[in-house]
Structures are given as C-alpha cells and as structure tokens.
Amino acid sequence: MSTALPSLFVSHGSPMLAVEPGRTGPLLRSIGARLPTPKAILVVSPHWETQAPRVGNLAKQRVIHDFGGFPRELYELDYPAAGSPELAERVAGLLRDAGLPAQTDDGWGLDHGAWVPLRYLYPGADIPVVQLSLQAHQPPAYHYRIGQLLAPLAKEGILLVGSGSFTHNLRELRRNDADAAIGSDSAPHTVEFLQWFLAQMQSGNLEALLGYRESAPHSVRLHPTDEHLLTLFFAMGAADDWTQSVHLDSGSTYHSLRMDAFAFGSQSSILADLPAAA
C-alpha cells in the first residue's frame, strides 16, 4: 500500500453500545465500509492497562466480557476474529527498538473497548486483530509517541485504532438519556470541551492538545481519570499527518459520554462526506 491508512479514534462509551447502536453504530459501520480493507487491525483500549507495553499474540482471539450487571445478551456476544502473532511480534519489536520494554502476551484477548466497536466497524470478524495495552499512568505525550513509533504499520495496510470515550465521567451518567443530541442543554460543558479540541486541532496546536488537562475547559470534570482519552493521542501520533483530520460526530449517550470519532492522516478525507461528519 503506497499511502498510509488513516488512524482512528473511536468512542465505545458503555458496553451497551453493542446492543444499543444509536447514532454511533451506523457511523462506525460507515467508516469500516468506506476505508480500504486493512490487512490487520491494531487496537488500543483503556480496559487493558499494564505498566509496560504488552501486545496480544493469540492466533485466534477470545472475547473478554469485562463488565458486570448488564443484560444477559451482552455476555452471549462474540467476535471470532483471528489474531496475528506475526503482527504482535512486529509491534513489540518496533517498541523495543525505541527502548521500551515491550512484550507479547497470550493471557488477554479483546476486551469490550476493542470488540464492541469492531463489531460495527468490521462485522464479519474477517480481519486479524491485535490488541496493545495502555499505560494509563503515562501522560498524553507518551501515547502520542507510541503512535509515532507504530505509524509505519499504516503504510503496510494495518489499521491503527485508539478506542476510548471522548468524554467519560460515569458519575454524571444518566441511563434514561441513552441518545442525547449534540448541543443538548443537558450537557453544554461537553460541547465546550469538544469545541476547544476542534479549535486546537484546526490550528495544529499539539502543545495545547498534549496539555489538555491544564488548558481545556471542564477537562477534569469530563475525565476524572484520563485513560479513555489517552487513546486519542495514540491515534494522532499514528497518523502520517495528524493535522489533516476529520471529526465524526455521533452525539452523546447517557448524558455524560460523548461518542465522537476522529480520523487522522493524509487519507482521512475519504471519510469527510460521511453523513455524521461535522
């Protein structure tokens, strides 16, 4: 592949996304249908946290139902994708070459931050998937660097995906507000936060973005802990040019979870005319 695939940040919100697609499910399905078919997928989820990078190397993936108290139907869902031990070793090698103590790992699988959005992006489960762990104790700049180290994979047809949640304050979650519209009076602070991010992205202000926690409005309120946003910086770093980006808006769910997606890179414009693009 002569040009790099765009890298993606997708919001997976609640595990209920798997059975309540709202606006996000169709958007993810449209993204998967529009992109050139990848040879494999590398996904980072905030639900696999380790001190140092670990890369899943199962030959056949297993789904992890890493949640409790949800309807039985969620625990019956599967995503029977293949893994790729070869890609896992390549990822670990790229990170080790940069001095990081990365290892492959056969003790994990795909947690809901990975398999829930993938069920919409590639419902056939016919593309090999590898999951990379997150170092939630590290700052955004670290995750941006991880993305940079793995960016060469995109030129080989590997789709790099950061899965998280653009906002993630579970204390403000309202289950009776499953599909709040963008700009709803119920959560104006989430829109202010989004608008700040879009302005910094448009101006190419990487320093401000990496320091969002000190600069963005309502940042600590919307991310009491920021593991669900760190994967955005991974996706930015993984792009051949993060300043070329497309924002894909599917509103919010349960009041406090914005479900925005972003595509980064010189080829991100192929997603610009999707119905939910903003």
UniProtKB/TrEMBL annotation:
CDD domains per the UniProt record, alphabetical: 45_DOPA_Dioxygenase
Xref: SUPFAM superfamilies: LigB-like (SSF53213)
One MF term in the entry's GO annotations: dioxygenase activity
Any single Pfam family the record assigns to this protein: LigB
Transmembrane regions listed in the UniProt entry: none
Signal peptide start-end: none
Domain named Extradiol ring-cleavage dioxygenase class III enzyme subunit B: residues: 9-243
Keywords assigned: Dioxygenase, Metal-binding, Oxidoreductase, Zinc
Cofactor requirements of the protein: Zn(2+)
Keyword Cell membrane assigned: no
Recorded family membership: Belongs to the DODA-type extradiol aromatic ring-opening dioxygenase family.
Protein name as it appears in the record: Aromatic ring-opening dioxygenase LigB
Species in which this protein is naturally found: Herbaspirillum hiltneri N3
Lineage of source species: Bacteria, Pseudomonadati, Pseudomonadota, Betaproteobacteria, Burkholderiales
